Amino acid sequence: MAYFYCNRAEENRRNPSSILNTLIQQLAQTEPEGLLKPAVDIYQARVNVGQRSSGLSLADSQELLVQLTDIYPRTTICIDALDEVEHQTRIDLLKSLRHVIERSKNLVKIFATARMDPDILLQFEKFPKIELQPDDNVSDIHKFVEAKVQSVIDDKQLLHGEVPDDLKVKICDALRMRSKGM
């Protein structure tokens, strides 16, 4: 399994090359042996032509990801906040992920969280998917908000624990409304 959390406020957390390289690092590292052979091979090839310190191109990264996923019987790639990647470059990341899914000899699953932007949906439309809408977790959010508000009341962190029931209801309602399914 490899994972990445995107963030539009940080350049290296919204750049497709950085994202793929982080996934590669996670998949290529093994505890006792060090790095898997495809990663060592590409490094050695780059050393031989004097490109040791230059970064991998997007195409090189996706091919290395395919080689790494071929080693594992199944691979899960988790990407949180995929919609945080800039719209102009997100297509490159989506195409690279689709390439890995299509070319790997073994099962590769992508677990991504994102707002339902059309470009994201279109890139994965031919693959099986499970879509969750904000309304799908309303009851979980209600339970969570109730428990957290009650916890801060019990710990006397909110109004020294002296919170009338009607105010508690208003606080919970406001938090649930503003959560928007998150």
Short description, anyone?
52% of the residues lie in helices and 12% in strands. With 182 residues, it is mostly helical. Helix 1 (16-28) packs parallel to helix 3 (58-71), helix 1 (16-28) runs parallel beside helix 4 and helix 3 packs parallel to helix 4 (87-103).
Which terms would index this structure?
about 180 residues, mainly alpha, three-stranded parallel sheet, two-stranded antiparallel ribbon, 7 helices, 5 strands, about 50% helix, about 10% strand, elongated
Q: What are the low-pLDDT stretches, counting only 5+ consecutive residues below 50? A: none
Cα end-to-end separation: 24 Å
Radius of gyration, taken over Cα atoms and rounded to an integer in Å: 22 Å
Oligomer: single chain
User: Given the C-alpha coordinates, what overall shape results?
Assistant: elongated
Largest sheet, spatial ordering of strands: 1-4-5
Q: How many DSSP E strands? A: 5
Biggest sheet details: 3 strands, parallel
Overall SS class: mainly alpha
Strand/helix succession: EHEEHHEHEHHH
